[in-house]
């Protein structure tokens, strides 16, 4: 059986009697575009089937994420939060994909997928508890801010090392396949992560095993401060999917309709045909890489302004208004509501006590081994000696 499968998957290239070399010009992948910045459709394009209710939810979650990002960057600048990463400018790449998947599909994110969590029901209180690492944080305060995770929402906890989720997603999806589940895995990462070895290992593994996983690479033009022109010489990331034998599509990542249309088809392929899919969304990171970054050192205000004209949130708003599904007064009220809600939960979360110190060594092993108990005892003595440097209790 294994021999037959190997023969079936073997590539049979055409033969030639001349020395022909192939370069990148042999494969240039087009970009799917449906929605223009003013909310109208591109010539000849057809909008995907999207109900008024779902369209409004997608938009509300995009606005929520934009508001959350603005407020939390402000909190970090005020010294209330140690670190933050925004999704600003890339909301459609995430919202348009997560909306096409089922609630029990596993999601493995990088660190700009706040809107995916929000879409599935992650509350403002849960966001704040994680960001402030308090006693109600689902991760028990063990993770950096923005490293969310939620078992109930099938959202795998985010890891700091870049690209590790890619082979993990290939393996998890293969497990779904073996279990016969009518589900798949959705894996997000950026163009910088696509330069990691895990990208190649993960895609090849998924292609060979026919794992039902949809890879979504958010190509925002930069890996922190390194522009894409200095990362790779090929035509973006999409051709790599084709090279690995994966069905691939490239879309305008600021176009919610194009992203959603591609994602609906991608999930259908992954689940029904039991094979991987790669979606490359061409977008732009409007904010800094993180609150530790200053983008003015590597890109111009003119470049940023050019992309602000393609803002995915404003583009979807214009489309909704043209459908008579939205208006300016509702939009203004929505922004006010989210701003107030986020600020209120922020104030509550930062006052909650920290998790019990014992949580540092629980859940690592079934029973904490001697070396961890020894380290923990040493930590307790250190904190007792310098109590003012380690506030362990909040006021709430």
Highlighted features:
single chain; 396 residues; alpha/beta; Rossmann fold; seven-stranded parallel sheet; two-stranded antiparallel sheet; 13 helices; disordered N terminus
How does this model look, in words?
The protein is α/β, with parallel strands linked by helices and 396 residues long. The protein folds into 2 domains: 321 residues, Thiamin diphosphate (ThDP)-binding fold, Pyr/PP domains (Rossmann fold, 3-Layer(aba) Sandwich), CATH 3.40.50; 33 residues. The protein has 13 helices and 9 strands. Strand 4, helix 7 and strand 5 form a beta-alpha-beta unit. It is globular, with a radius of gyration of 23 Å. The N terminus is likely disordered.
**Strand residues, percent:** 5-15%
- Which class best fits the helix and strand makeup? alpha/beta
Distance between the termini: 63 Å
User: Percent of residues in helical segments?
Assistant: 40-55%
Which architecture of the largest domain would the CATH scheme give at its second level?
A: 3-Layer(aba) Sandwich
Radius of gyration: 23 Å
Overall mean pLDDT stands at: 94
Tally the helices: what do you get? Answer: 13
User: Unreliable runs, pLDDT <50, ≥5 residues?
Assistant: 1-7
Number of domains: 2
CATH homologous superfamily grouping of the largest domain: Thiamin diphosphate (ThDP)-binding fold, Pyr/PP domains
Looking at the structure, what is the overall shape?
A: globular
Order of helices and strands: HEHHEHHEHEHEEEHEHEHHHH
Which strand order does the major sheet show? 1-8-9-5-4-2-3
How many beta-strand runs?
A: 9
How many strands, what sense, and barrel or not for the largest sheet? 7 strands, parallel
- Output the CATH class name of the largest domain: Alpha Beta
| CATH level-3 fold name of the largest domain | Rossmann fold
């Amino acid at each position: 059986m294994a021999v037959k499968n190997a023969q079936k998957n073997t590539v049979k290239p055409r033969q030639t009697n001349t020395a022909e070399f192939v370069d990148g010009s042999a494969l240039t992948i087009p970009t799917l575009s449906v929605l223009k910045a003013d909310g109208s459709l591109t010539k000849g394009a057809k909008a995907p089937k999207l109900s008024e209710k779902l369209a409004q939810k997608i938009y509300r979650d995009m606005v929520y994420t934009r508001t959350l990002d603005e407020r939390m960057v402000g909190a970090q600048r005020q010294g209330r939060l140690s670190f933050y990463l925004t999704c600003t400018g890339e909301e459609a790449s995430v919202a348009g994909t997560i909306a096409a998947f089922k609630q029990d599909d596993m999601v493995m994110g990088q660190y700009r997928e706040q809107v995916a969590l929000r879409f599935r029901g992650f509350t403002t209180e849960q966001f704040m508890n994680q960001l402030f690492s308090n006693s109600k944080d689902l991760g028990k305060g063990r993770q950096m801010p923005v490293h969310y995770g939620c078992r109930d929402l099938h959202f795998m906890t985010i890891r700091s090392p870049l690209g590790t989720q890619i082979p993990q997603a290939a393996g998890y999806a293969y497990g779904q396949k073996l279990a016969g589940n009518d589900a798949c895995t959705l894996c997000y990462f950026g163009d910088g992560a696509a330069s990691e070895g895990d990208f190649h290992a993960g895609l090849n593994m998924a292609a060979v095993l026919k794992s039902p996983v949809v890879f979504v690479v958010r190509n925002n033009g930069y890996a922190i401060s390194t522009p894409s022109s200095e990362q790779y010489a090929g035509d973006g990331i999409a051709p790599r999917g084709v090279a690995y034998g994966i069905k691939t599509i490239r879309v305008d990542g600021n176009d919610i309709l194009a992203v959603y249309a591609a994602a609906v088809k991608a999930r259908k392929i992954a689940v029904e045909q039991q094979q991987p899919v790669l979606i490359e969304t061409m977008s732009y990171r409007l904010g800094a890489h993180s609150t530790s970054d200053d983008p003015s050192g590597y890109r111009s205000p003119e470049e940023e302004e050019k992309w602000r004209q393609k803002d995915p949130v404003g583009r979807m708003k214009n489309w909704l208004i043209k459908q008579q599904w939205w208006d300016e007064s509702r939009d203004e009220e929505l922004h006010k509501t989210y701003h107030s809600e986020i600020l209120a939960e922020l104030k509550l979360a930062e006052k909650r006590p920290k998790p019990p110190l014992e949580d540092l060594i629980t859940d690592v092993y079934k029973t904490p081994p001697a070396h961890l108990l020894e380290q923990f005892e040493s930590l307790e003595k250190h904190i007792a000696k310098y109590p003012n440097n380690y506030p362990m209790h909040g006021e709430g």
